[in-house]
Amino acid sequence: MAIPKNILVDNPGIREWSILTGFRGSIAHGMYVPQNKPDSIDDKDVMAVCIPPIDYYFGLKEFGNKGTKEIMVEEWDIVIYEFRKFIRMLCQGNPNVLSMLWLQPGDYIHLTPEGELLIKNRNLFVGRHAYRSFTGYAYGQMHRMEHGAFNGYMGAKRKGLVEKYGYDCKNAAHLIRLLRMGIEFLKDGELYVKREDAPQLLDIKHGKWTLEQVKGEADRLFKLSEEIYLKSTLPKEPDFKKVNKLSCEIINSFLKTGGQHEE
Hints:
Elements: H1 5-10, E1 18-23, H2 25-29, E2 44-50, H3 55-58, E3 68-73, E4 76-82, H4 83-91, H5 95-99, E5 108-111, H6 113-120, H7 130-147, H8 155-165, H9 169-188, H10 198-205, H11 211-231, H12 240-257
Parallel strand pairs: 2-4
Antiparallel strand pairs: 1-2, 1-5, 3-4
Helix pairs in contact: 4-12, 6-12, 7-9, 9-10, 9-11
């Protein structure tokens, strides 16, 4: 499953400037449903972390929109973060960006030594602060589950499935997955991105659970999340001095080589 060449050519943040590019979303979670399946509403989701040339740091250039660039071409949904923006989001405990440091090896599309160094130091971003991020994102999914807008490449088809089942099953699966991942993270300090519970989550995604079942499981998990948070022995938050030192090391290394590493 390769990113089309026309997207790569037009967006150096995915390849030439990237220290880390990988699959996110349903592919990374082991829940991707190919579009030739009747109930498929999945995009091919990718995230990249880039360090653009030095004039973006000392000149007047700015990468994307405040450090973020989004690309949507047919089924491809790609987001590129400038490195410092990505680091700030890691420090905030953002579930989506944290997941990029715990992917399975086969889910990385492009990885430089600087990207590997970031992954090696992923424990710097482990902490109890992530509780509010995971539960906050989960509450957002719960709201959209019944009140969501159906935009984008698969919008019309997704709306049809909502009308069929009475709620947004994809948001429901995200809701349950986020809560389970957050609980695991607070307990173990690890993110299990490739889900062992993928078959059950796919059942939810395909409308095999009633809305009442989803709400009941979510209520149980929200309560368990709070209990685990209160008992967690993880650090309160990241060590920002160590994170800052690592960030300087990674940026300096990449700019010195221009990203020209042997693969």
